[in-house]
Amino acid sequence: MTDSAPPSQARTPWRAVFGGSIGNLVEWYDWFVYASFATYFAGAFFPKGNDTAQLLNTAGIFAVGFFMRPVGGWLLGRFADRRGRKAALTLTVTLMSASALLIAIAPTYDQVGYFGAAVLLVARLLQGLSVGGEYAASATYLTEASRPGGRGFVSSFQYVSMTMGQLIGLGLQIVLQHTMSDDALHSYGWRIPFIVGAVGAAVVFWLRRNLLETEVYTEEDAHQDERGTIAELLRHRKEAALVIALTMGGTVAYYTYTTYLTKYLSNTAGLSKSDASLVSFCALFLFMLLQPLAGSLSDRIGRRPLLITFGFGSMLGTVPIMTALSHTNTFTGALLLSLAALVIVTGYTSINAVVKAELFPTHVRALGVALPYALANALFGGTAEYVALWFKKGGAESGYYWYVSACAAVSLIVYLTMRETRDAALSRDRADDPAAPGKQRTTAV
């Protein structure tokens, strides 16, 4: 950064970090609260029976939401490239508010039969559509609003906000568990977090309307007709395939140790629901604090070293960690093992957003991040919980541990062979060298 840089470029873009992250927080609060409260509302939408079978049904609807994410990635990624990052961020949080409200008022199986499950399904489809665009819009916005040499640090706040959203959901769950009876939670208490999410999203809608567009996007004059098109994305099909491959292992591991962890601790390890929730809360809080540290480290040593560390750690550590967790019946033991797993996952989560954004030019960056990432999440992240419960129901739960390890092994091959993206220029013509540090542009909001 030179001395002649304008004031807007001379400061850390905390306004952009806050604006991009606060909406992301609410988006992922609503997304994850479905998973964390599933143990309470599973029986409300399906016939009485085996607890695992009911969880399997709700996990199936959870997975369906992921399969809507590629549609959201395509539509909203294109929208973000053609209409701007700010417009896309505002639209995604609007859709999320509507979906949370639908779940909050959905009728139960005893009231209307399977129609209540149908309403739940529609809400999850809307959430999938919203989150499919939110990830890319947020990743692109935070990356483009960062100064050179600080993109890893700034973009790491995407997972800070994602984790904070989940922590708020888990924190609310813990409060409700200690202030409401178990019967009340199963009866109507589970609706409270969705009402909170709908209101929170409405507040964020107002906040995001006051965001400024990134300079990288507004200064992009070329390729107007090609912005956000599938045809243009196909010109970068190698990068799109790379996004899918590098996401595979990370998304499976992430959803294993976040959304599925609470159920695993209560349904397999035998911890009480309240203890399992508290373990997840504490582990995720420490995990959240690690993200900016790891993101900043990547600005110094590069992205690949962190990804490679995650790949080896997840490939070799998943089976022993998950096996030990299954035999843990103490709070401390479960917390230490969960934290060990999340420290490994940090190598992926802290920088995966910036790595993907650094692979694409401005006019197709949001779509390039959104669509392949959403496809990878639909195939691997969204199905992680369902696959885990399927293995458990089949009496071979340890098979899932090997599945997670195998996914990490595939991604590790990609990490070992991909190019470093830390010095990639964000604003460049198609003919420019993507890795040319001389093309770097300073951007701030």
From TrEMBL:
- On whether Nucleotide-binding is a keyword of this UniProt record, the answer is no
Q: Where in the cell is it found?
A: Cell membrane
Keywords annotated in UniProt: Cell membrane, Membrane, Symport, Transmembrane, Transmembrane helix, Transport
Q: Which CDD domains does this UniProt record tie to the protein?
A: MFS_KgtP (cd17367)
What is the membrane topology listed in the Swiss-Prot or TrEMBL record? Multi-pass membrane protein
Tell whether Transcription regulation is among the UniProt keywords: no
Residue intervals passing through the bilayer = 28-46, 58-76, 88-106, 112-136, 157-176, 188-207, 240-257, 277-294, 306-325, 331-355, 367-388, 400-418
The record places domain Major facilitator superfamily (MFS) profile at: 16-423
> Where mainly found?
membrane
Supply the SUPFAM superfamilies for this chain: MFS general substrate transporter
Family designation: Belongs to the major facilitator superfamily. Metabolite:H+ Symporter (MHS) family (TC 2.A.1.6) family.
Q: What is this protein called?
A: MFS transporter
State the organism of origin. Streptomyces mordarskii
